[in-house]
Amino acid sequence: MLGVARGRAHLVNVVDRPLPKGKTEVNLSAFAFLFSELVQYFQTKVNNVNELERKLEEAGYGVGLRVLELLCHREKANRRETRLLGILTFIHSTVWKALFGKQADSLEKATTEEDEYMISEKELLVNRFISVPKDMGQFNCGAYVAGIVKGVLDSAGFPARVTAHFVPIEGQLRPRTTILIKFSPEVMLREQRMG
Amino acid sequence: MSTIYNIFVINKSGGLIYYKDFGSIAKLDTNDSLRLASVWHSLHAISSQLSPVTGCTGIELLEADTFDLHCFQTATGTKFFVTGETGAAGVDLLLKSIYELYSDYVLKNPFYEVEMPIRVELWDLNLATLIRQRERTSTGK
């Protein structure tokens, strides 16, 4: 997200320059290869699938922290969402648009649990070129995106457990990816108090 | 009836890493497909050395009485080749598209080891779609 100095822009001191929107798109292939390399690197560092999932989550977590900081400044004039639904729509639309160039396909509330929300994506960008071998079970590289969501939520003051799952859809060969968000009890309590 | 009989992918050392047949003709068992792949690898290598033309990169098309064999070699030495009906058109384009699918769904997949047999779900799916599309357009006209 480094802005390239063009024309007169470089004459202005770097701290005085507005935080540029810049060109936020990168080549998909370049990203796919980098992400693939990241997963392969982690695979050499772990003993099982759960550890790999956690590693990916940790890698995404740092992205989440920074993305919240940047987007609050750039899109919301340094204001941050304090309500549960507010932060969820912020992730679903603003964060998703900044990271993947589009809004997430859907944001739903779980029917069974009060504190669970789901963001679903038919084809998650990080999973575009990835086929998980059968022997890795339900492993989903979306764990990285789950980490990003967790990073955003945590630093916004909404601690939550975030996981990525494959959910088969009827009549479709490929399952969709659902990011499951389970908020901590204190978040739900605070939300109730605020009415 | 399918105009493409089978598709082979061989790695740079001549080992068969992917084989699939389409339609009912010219089905090969595992041993035959492996044998054919390594024979073709050697033929291809020899042909490029024997060729009177300088800078020859090997056989691109073999025309037989009952089938045509089209071959495409990438810059890294991986070879894609398909056998199909004699005179089938647009096979060189098909090979390019197959190469594209290979670089997308096989090489960008973190769980695939290069030079090893290809067992990748998305590659299988997209390859099947590509062949289906081709058959539909060729029978549609």
From TrEMBL, chain A:
<dbReference type="InterPro" id="IPR007194">
    <property type="entry name" value="TRAPP_component"/>
</dbReference>
<dbReference type="GO" id="GO:0005783">
    <property type="term" value="C:endoplasmic reticulum"/>
</dbReference>
<dbReference type="InterPro" id="IPR024096">
    <property type="entry name" value="NO_sig/Golgi_transp_ligand-bd"/>
</dbReference>
<keyword id="KW-0931">ER-Golgi transport</keyword>
<protein>
    <recommendedName>
        <fullName>Trafficking protein particle complex subunit</fullName>
    </recommendedName>
</protein>
<keyword id="KW-0813">Transport</keyword>
<dbReference type="GO" id="GO:1990072">
    <property type="term" value="C:TRAPPIII protein complex"/>
</dbReference>
<keyword id="KW-0333">Golgi apparatus</keyword>
<keyword id="KW-0256">Endoplasmic reticulum</keyword>
<comment type="subunit">
    <text>Part of the multisubunit TRAPP (transport protein particle) complex.</text>
</comment>
<dbReference type="GO" id="GO:1990070">
    <property type="term" value="C:TRAPPI protein complex"/>
</dbReference>
<dbReference type="GO" id="GO:0006888">
    <property type="term" value="P:endoplasmic reticulum to Golgi vesicle-mediated transport"/>
</dbReference>
<comment type="similarity">
    <text>Belongs to the TRAPP small subunits family. BET3 subfamily.</text>
</comment>
<dbReference type="GO" id="GO:1990071">
    <property type="term" value="C:TRAPPII protein complex"/>
</dbReference>
<dbReference type="InterPro" id="IPR016696">
    <property type="entry name" value="TRAPP-I_su5"/>
</dbReference>
<dbReference type="Pfam" id="PF04051">
    <property type="entry name" value="TRAPP"/>
</dbReference>
TrEMBL record, chain B:
<comment type="similarity">
    <text>Belongs to the TRAPP small subunits family. TRAPPC4 subfamily.</text>
</comment>
<protein>
    <recommendedName>
        <fullName>Trafficking protein particle complex subunit</fullName>
    </recommendedName>
</protein>
<dbReference type="GO" id="GO:0005783">
    <property type="term" value="C:endoplasmic reticulum"/>
</dbReference>
<keyword id="KW-0256">Endoplasmic reticulum</keyword>
<dbReference type="GO" id="GO:0005794">
    <property type="term" value="C:Golgi apparatus"/>
</dbReference>
<dbReference type="GO" id="GO:0030008">
    <property type="term" value="C:TRAPP complex"/>
</dbReference>
<keyword id="KW-0931">ER-Golgi transport</keyword>
<keyword id="KW-0333">Golgi apparatus</keyword>
<comment type="subunit">
    <text>Part of the multisubunit transport protein particle (TRAPP) complex.</text>
</comment>
<dbReference type="GO" id="GO:0006888">
    <property type="term" value="P:endoplasmic reticulum to Golgi vesicle-mediated transport"/>
</dbReference>
<dbReference type="Pfam" id="PF04099">
    <property type="entry name" value="Sybindin"/>
</dbReference>
<keyword id="KW-0813">Transport</keyword>
<dbReference type="InterPro" id="IPR007233">
    <property type="entry name" value="TRAPPC"/>
</dbReference>
<dbReference type="InterPro" id="IPR011012">
    <property type="entry name" value="Longin-like_dom_sf"/>
</dbReference>
